[in-house]
Amino acid sequence: MSMNIFGINTKEKEAAIALIPVPWEVTTSYGNGTADGPKIIERASHQVDLWDSTFENIVEQKGVFMFSENNTIRELNDKLKPKALDSVNEVNSASERVNELVYRKAKDNLEKNKVVGVVGGDHSSPLGLIKAITEKYTNDYGVLHFDAHADLRKQYQGFSHSHASIMYNVMTAPFAPKKLVQVGIRDFCEEELARIKKSEGKIKTFFDDALSEKKFSGTTWETITDTIVMELPNNIYISFDIDGLDPNLCQGTGTPVPGGLSFNECSYFFKKLFAAKKKIIGFDLCEVSGSEWDANVGARVLFKLCGLTLATNF
Ligand SMILES: [Mn+2]
Fold this sequence. Notes:
This protein is of the alpha/beta class. It has helices at 37-45, 58-62, 71-80, 88-111, 127-137, 166-172, 190-198, 208-216, 221-230, 263-275, 292-313; strands at residues 17-22, 64-66, 115-120, 142-146, 179-185, 203-207, 235-241, 279-286. An 8-stranded parallel sheet has the order 2-1-3-8-7-4-5-6, sandwiched between helices.
């Protein structure tokens, strides 16, 4: 059964974008509820108007299909979430299983020439998709990562596939992309900062406070986005943690941090990626959780991500 995202009646076969929901939040460390992210986003998505000022009606034209939740992932989540900190080994092997399931589903859909997106779940959700993307594009792409957190910890609380380790796991995997560009980062530890510095430019981080200081002293958001876009190769995978935005837009997310991008700054950024003729080869949206408002913002970010992706592929 289709979740009928955005209320459009695209059949699986016809849809240009396949969305994989990942109801998984076992490694979340603070707030709860992001396993229901796909569900609440889907519900809120019906109120999003299908016309976008930049991407027009491309989402309706080309079609998006969201699969049903994978039962195994949901069962593993519900079983392990209440006792995660006491069952680290069990969680680690369950994470591997989730990655494998997402990988297989993603690979299957990439082979059908669809663009694949993951809707999390916590930020560990998309690793399987990123692996499948690399097999298709080798490492000829960069990851554009919107987040409050650097997510470059080797492990967190003993979890090897923690939400706080996703970019560490991506960048140290045999399937690492050629570049990681991070935007909005404002919460990180020394280990992560050292990893960025040691990367010799392979990891380029645009910290939130530095971006703000530029804006305060008169640099325009246009100039700032141009600078960031220039760091990116042509093929881009977008990993979007909702907490990269101002927490007024995502109060229910697991680990909110003051600061962050406004919705319009983000939309403008997407417009710039489109204007620069970049190609979005896949994406994820993670850590959406909480109220109707959180769901509403999540649905609108997802709609923009789908519009941008389609506009850069057709
Ligand atoms: Mn985050």
